[in-house]
Amino acid sequence: MKTYAEAGVDIKKEERAVKSLVSALKFKREGFGKVVLTNHFASVIDVGFLLAITTDGVGTKIKVAEAMRNFRTIGIDCVAMNANDLMAVGAEPIAMVDYIATNSPDEKVMEEIGIGLNEGCKIANMSLIGGETATLDFVKGWDLSGTAIGIVRKLITGEKIVEGDVIYAFPSNGIHSNGLTLARKLIESSGLSYFDKFEDRTIGEELLKPTRIYVETLEIIEKFEVHGIANITGGGLLNLKRLKDVKFVIDKPLKPQKIFEFLQRLGEIDTKEMYRTFNMGMGYMLILPEEDAKELERKYDGKIVGYVEEGEGVYLKDLRIDD
Description:
Distance between the termini: 20 Å
Helix content: 25-40%
Low-confidence stretches: none
């Protein structure tokens, strides 16, 4: 098992399926509530001001929580996946609703999920104002997702990206909430346990580290000329392609955390596949003029990792990863 597709998540197949779905969605409201931006990290409508909306979940990371019997941080991941997508279009997260599906309600699990949701909302400065819990006999275990809205402070779509811009990356704090299907199957098929030691913790504890919420983004877009923002989630660096059809070159990537080195060795996975599946230590990317990016390096914990030039595609140094 050396690819995300072999583990059961085929990004290209998923993209084709989504295109089939979107092709059937012809109707668009006009006037009040008209669509301004769609098919981005978040979508935007006009209600007299610009309102962004997005939806996402924690995916199969919840299977690790089940194995560890620890659901206390999964809610942070759920908030993070939504808040980070909202900020990627220049929106300030303000409110969210959650959706929990299970085949067997459990008070302790629900309480722990709630603890994480509350903590995530506190970090993102947004309110969880409601939600839905469904008991479904075809669900085996748990599923957690959410839908969030934000007020656009400065609409950022990627269209202003130009040759000569640089790519500034914030470090992730590990695997976040994507690529877990491959990670889980690598670990389980190798005969390892989530309770086996990894560094100063267990493998399961490392995988459950909650997704970083990049709240610095809101301050940055107010003070700097940001042309594009990419949330590096499922698909890894391929997320840059969602911004604009230009050539993105990552020539000085941040050093991946040891969990990525561990998984790569475990599955003998090639470098291209790793950067097409995981964030590889770079959880959030801003594309902006070099002068502004150098100022960010002095103020925050990220680094300039690459640049934009004429052409198309996503490259890790000389290796094209989107072919």
